[in-house]
Amino acid sequence: LATSMLGRATPLGDPVLLTDLQTLIDEISTVVKDSSQPARIGFGGQFGAGKTRLIEALLGCGGMFPVAANATTGNIFEITVKQTGRASTELTEWRVEIIGGTRARSMLERFAARALAELEREEYTPQFEGLDSPEKSLRAIMKSDADFDERLMQALRWGEVVRRSSRTTELCYAAAELCRFARAVQLGRQILGKSFSVTQAQANDLLTLKHNASSLLRAPIDELQPVLPEIGPAGSLTDVESVRPLFHLVRKVTATAEVPEAVARNLGIGEGVDFRFVDCPGGGADGTGVRDEELS
Question: What is the pLDDT of residues 171-185, one digit of tens each?
Fold first, then answer.
């Protein structure tokens, strides 16, 4: 129905209507896809608790996933488990799914709401250069029926100004995350809701958290404004030199674990039966955790 509506609306040439209909199609496709998928078993907890290592042990593939002493898993990692005739576990079919337009709007509102909560906790009357009313500006960003592009511009400006001027660490975190996310969405509008093939090395790059929360306070503002890679029409990122700027737009990274019969037997599954392990980012690993709460 949505696809039919898009076809009828195309001759009208209304860019807002066409964008909204395409976003609706992307979101419906995601829901339909998820509803037909196997059961998921999620692994959650604080960072460093050993979630990733436990999944490796269950799959019989120790050392295959990126781990470190510091918080490491920065995006959701979903692994489809299938019994095959292989002698050992192999990881195949690596892909990255980008958040859709509806999710991007919801996340922007969450970031703004978190920033508003921190703003209200300030122990002094904040005066931010270039912002007549920081609270009013945030509420405008949270207004779901306003123009999304305008809200992104407001969020970027608000985040830049407040991060530079705030006296509290928590508000700096919230402002930096709002700014970083708004810029990533602004630059990546053309790939929202899409899915791409990636190599295992690229997948690891999109899974690995390479900064800690405190770096949001020190990093130059340019580092919060990623330059997204050029993506061709082939639906693959395997030729892209660096996929790292896509990190904050990732909905999840997926792969298939083809396990031998012995591993499948230990997991209680047989041939033709599959399910999914979901490795969630550790709590408190990345700033305020707003993005992780939304995706999880």
Answer: 888 888 888 888 888
